[in-house]
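Predicting holo structure, FE2/S2 (inorganic) cluster bound.
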Amino acid sequence: MRIKEHPILNFKEERKVIHFTFNNCPVTGYEGDTIASALHALGIKKLSESMNLKRPRGFYCAIGNCSSCRMIVDGEPNVKTCVTLLKEGMDVKVQSNKGEIYD
Amino acid sequence: MSKYSLIKVKYMIKKDLVIIGGGPAGLCAAKMVAEANQSCMLIDRNQILGGQLIKQTHMFFGSEKQYAKTRGIDIAEKLVEDVKKYSDLIDIWEDTTVVGLYQDKVVTVLKNERYVKIQAKAIIIATGASEKVLAFENNDLPGIYGAGAVQTLMNVYGVKPGHKIVMVGSGNIGLIVSYQLMQAGVNVLSIIEASPKIGGYKVHASKVRRLGVNIETSCTIKKAIGHENVKKIETIKLDENWKEIEGTEKEYEVDAVCIAVGLTPLTNLLSMIGCQMKYVSELGGLVPIINENHETSIENIYVCGDASGIEEASSAIVEGYLAGLHACKKLGKFHPKNDELMNEYHQQLTNLRNGPFGEKIRIGLKKQGVCKDVS
Amino acid sequence: MLVKDGVATYEQVISRFPKQEFLVKPKAIIECYENIPCNPCSTSCPFDAITILEDINQLPKIDFDKCTGCGVCIYNCPGLAIMVCQIIGDKVRFKIPYEFLPYPNESETWHAINRKGEIIGDALIEKVMLTKRQDRTAVIQVLVDKENLYDFVTIRRKI
Ligand SMILES: Cc1cc2nc3c(=O)[nH]c(=O)nc-3n(C[C@H](O)[C@H](O)[C@H](O)COP(=O)(O)OP(=O)(O)OC[C@H]3O[C@@H](n4cnc5c(N)ncnc54)[C@H](O)[C@@H]3O)c2cc1C
Ligand code: SF4
Ligand code: SF4
Ligand code: FES
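Done. Tokens:
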């Protein structure tokens, strides 16, 4: 899903690979990605489930307005993954409840 | 305490002027303020300044005074460069979200998990807009995105939203994003528009049409179909009373749908501080009531750009200049060319809003309370 | 119809062309049919051939006597609504804006495309211009049959 060539923009090819896990599976993205853009590039569109009916949800606004991209990141729930930069070793999971903080 | 609790900074930072939002409006306000030798703080929640402009790969309309024919991405770069020149006067806080705004002009922000309070004398709000959503069956399926999200994904992060896409909405944003999708190598199956006429500039419409994209007017999306993400959509034609015409349903196989049905001002901070608001549909929804100095019903709280009513980057730039000039004038700092610039900018705004496309804006602004910059 | 599907009518299109005698020299064809706040075509023309009055919402007016067909306006128009056209015997030479990859190569034959996006014939690629001043809008010079004078608008790669 990555854009390889573009008439206007120049996407650097040699970007640093970032390793992270999605629902416990090891996957990779690039430096500069947000969590949501890295997942989307892998074809993963479902990021959360609605609280009551458990309907699948992806992102909608990609600028931190709508919260439909919330996920559990390193154990922390309700992280807006569309505006959170991807970091090495992150543990990212689909969120399907309101989110609770465990110590 | 969990490790996620916020670290509170006890003391209060004091600033004469705080500008919230670093899009074209906020950046231009900051530039004017600095030129008047007034210090300020510029806050944006994004890591990169520039607002909507950082994803606009197309050349802009307008006149050269507002950077017409320059690509949005390059306008952003120029405006940011201008502001960074005044590093002694403009204190830039990127990656910082304003979460609260109070009557005593206290601004509370979240920066790196820290909760910081800032006491200001004057505040310019330039928070831009958010995208409207459209109601239809299964509109929450993954793969259905706002047009801005599609642009961010493809033009900022270099990721395609899908391979086969239908665009809903033929305003300038719908048309431009369709063109940009094609530049990124995505197949745009159709652009559908509920109204009987194309909403955006016809030059944009012709540009996508000659690439083979069908623009279907009097047509809307009825439902999306899919389990984990959208696989198909059903469209239906509308009659002159906007009623669905049975039997005209059509299916498209898609892996993404882009919704471009307009923007609405991002005014939650304005509501929070208690500015008088009014619903003006011509300006995109709830807008603050302002006087001709871009000041809201609360003294020393200014607003400019899309946050005060949806227009264009060209007008956001000029409104930013004006709000900056007015705010520092009231703080007692005069821009050396204050009067000359004010006249010039008021004239530019009037000029931009003059044509048939400005009519909606002119009606809206009259309802909002600003009568100066329309003829 | 333009407002319904983005396709200009035949009458609209020919209203933008000068008489064919003029087209022995290259001339700019400006397909801007709507009053929008925009004026770079006029401010960028080195020969002052395009005027938009004080009110930038006015339609651009071209003076074909002044236009040299230099093509500067092609890549300065944000609407990509301008092309340059010249009749050469039974062929027409067009210069058009193009912002897609891959770019054509000289002497290739691509499809000639009309305003609805349909194939109407062949377009022989003569030149591909992309200087720094053009700011990533390439200008492609092509040769098409004269019968396509009022139909041709862009090119598409043959697959
Ligand atoms: C697809 C598309 C095409 C367009 N094409 C054109 C065109 O050709 N010509 C033209 O003139 N205009 C065009 N526009 C319109 C133009 O981009 C906008 O009108 C313009 O960006 C508005 O500027 P602004 O500064 O008001 O808001 P924005 O650019 O939206 O900037 C607002 C800023 O505020 C920040 N912010 C918001 N809330 C907070 C908070 N709580 N705390 C901290 N920061 C916050 C945001 O991060 C953002 O950076 C286009 C828009 C789109 C979407
Ligand atoms: S082709 Fe050259 S001379 Fe003719 S209108 Fe365009 S810029 Fe002016
Ligand atoms: S630059 Fe292009 S879109 Fe703008 S007025 Fe001139 S011809 Fe029309
Ligand atoms: S997609 Fe809207 S907040 Fe992330």
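Residues 17-93 of chain A form a domain with the Ubiquitin-like (UB roll) fold (CATH 3.10.20.440).
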